[in-house]
């Protein structure tokens, strides 16, 4: 088993443990919401429900995203982790909006809350959430999938803290609106992180340039390669976490086609993409074009057939 397979297996185990803990707390909080009548606990339980579903989705995604490429899916199912994270973020955003709507209504008509029971269930939830965070923390930066799972459990932990605070306030002051205020506070914690994750995953789906990659900087370094005259139709996109892809048309001197120097230029361009930048671009495709077939705008007249070379080296992580 190589390092990548080991990391994938480890992340899957982490997700499985977190899913088990989250599902247990979900059942406990649903019972607690019925017993106490607390909106904060009900919203936290609803949040836990989406998180349990999200963790299950993340667990399944971790299992399928490493499946090998096929003739039908040439990148395999690597983009499944982006789709899963997008779905989780969309659901969490909906929960956050519901919190504010229901919370405002309860500010004006607060129900009676059983504060002692609310405190007990809040502590149970916080304990399990902290355990899940400890399990997921080491792999939280591995990919979008793991990051989404970690953020969901972190939001759960913050929600449990808010539930405990609400229970203490109600027990000491009798101010039942604290339950609604805390519920909306949970919503405040959910929405910004969710919007950030949603924005990043949508950028991947829209095939935007990966964060931290300067397209013009890449173009200039390709132009600095000997015998390269022009670089156009340059595209850098991201298939999944840590998997950027580059394609470009490169105009080179005519003599390179006559003396057989073109393949060497292709190799130089590939090394430039794979080694120079902070985010290595291991998958690159360059179409070499003769200068005699291009006008002043870099557009080919197709007087000579282009030479295309492609590389998709195996990347060990």
Shape annotation: elongated
Give the CA-CA distance, first to last residue. 12 Å
| Percent range for β-strand residues | 5-15%
Strand count, sense and barrel status of the largest sheet are: 4 strands, mixed
CATH overall fold name of the largest domain:
Alpha-lytic protease prodomain-like
Mean pLDDT: 77
Number of spatially distinct domains = 2
Number of strands: 4
Which structural class matches the secondary elements?
alpha+beta
Q: How are the strands of the largest sheet arranged? A: 1-2-3-4
Q: What top-tier CATH class of the largest domain fits best?
A: Mainly Alpha
User: Could you give me the name of the CATH homologous superfamily of the largest domain?
Assistant: Cation efflux protein transmembrane domain
DSSP helical segment count? 9
Low-confidence stretches: 1-6, 300-317
How much helical structure, as a percent, in the residues?
Answer: 55-70%
């Amino acid at each position: 088993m190589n390092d990548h397979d080991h990391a994938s297996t480890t992340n899957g185990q982490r997700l499985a443990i977190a899913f088990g803990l989250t599902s247990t707390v979900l059942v406990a909080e649903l019972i607690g919401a019925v017993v106490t009548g607390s909106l904060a606990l009900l919203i936290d339980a609803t949040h836990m429900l989406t998180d349990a579903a999200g963790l299950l989705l993340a667990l399944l995604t971790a299992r399928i995203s490493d499946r090998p490429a096929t003739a039908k899916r040439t990148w395999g199912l690597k983009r499944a982790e982006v789709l899963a994270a997008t779905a989780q973020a969309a659901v969490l955003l909906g929960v956050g909006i519901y919190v504010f709507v229901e919370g405002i209504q309860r500010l004006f008509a607060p129900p009676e809350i059983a504060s002692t029971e609310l405190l007990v269930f809040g502590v149970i939830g916080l304990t399990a959430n902290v355990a899940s965070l400890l399990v997921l923390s080491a792999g939280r930066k591995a990919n979008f999938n793991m990051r989404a799972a970690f953020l969901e459990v972190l939001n759960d932990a913050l929600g449990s803290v808010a539930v405990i605070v609400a229970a203490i306030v109600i027990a000491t002051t009798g101010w039942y609106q604290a339950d609604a205020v805390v519920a909306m506070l949970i919503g405040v914690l959910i929405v910004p992180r969710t919007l950030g994750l949603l924005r990043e995953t949508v950028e991947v789906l829209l095939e935007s340039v990966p964060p931290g990659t300067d397209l013009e900087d890449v173009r200039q370094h390709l132009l600095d390669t000997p015998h390269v005259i022009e670089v156009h139709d340059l595209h850098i996109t991201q298939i999944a976490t840590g998997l950027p892809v580059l394609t470009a048309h490169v105009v080179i001197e005519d003599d390179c086609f006559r003396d057989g120097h073109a393949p060497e230029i292709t190799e130089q361009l590939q090394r430039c993409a794979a080694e120079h930048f902070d985010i290595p671009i291991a998958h690159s495709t360059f179409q070499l074009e003769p200068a005699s077939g291009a006008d002043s705008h870099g557009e080919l007249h197709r007087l000579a057939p282009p030479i295309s070379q492609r590389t998709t080296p195996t990347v060990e992580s």
